[in-house]
Amino acid sequence: MYGEQPSAPATQAAALFRAAGVQDVLELGAGHGRDALHFARCGFTVHATDFSSAGLRQLRERADAEGLPGVTTGIVDVRDRLPLSDQSVDAVYAHMLLCMALSTKEIFALVDEIRRVLRQGGTLFYTVRHTGDAHYGSGIDCGDDIFEHGGFAVHFFPLSLVDQLADGWDLRQVDEFEEGELPRRLWSVIQTRR
After folding, report:
1. Which one of 5, 104, 166, 193 counts the least CB within 10 Å of its CB?
2. To 10 degrees, the CA torsion angle through 55, 52, 36, 129?
């Protein structure tokens, strides 16, 4: 759906992770793996997770074909507890995963889980569509800033939600960027675990 090349956020995240001395990355919502494979090519150990077994199978096949070591995959429903031990990863990456059809309550619970699995000083790098996006406020209103277009529901983030999710973290950076043909308008957020 999004092509084979890594996303611009993944390229930015890889540079940030390298500068921070990150060794292992947990990707939430890896899909068919364009970003996870980029992280592996950059030398990181990557645990790529998604709800889709088909996407993870494609990711695994590509990692094997390229001979990329250190790539593991796992089916994960982010509404449940993450299947990792406390403080077990250096970085978590989630490109447009938090803005899926998750309630605000589920998003807060997920960010708490991310904090649990991150090591002290670990980095969370995530992107979300925001309320300045052309699709915000149109389509089927599902409540809680979630709107459905063509069978695909998106939770649009006001900046206040980004700020609330950073409570108890060190919020390092919030940038606005555009992606795709619409274009989609997103926040890119970097925060570290205290």
Report:
1. 5
2. 110
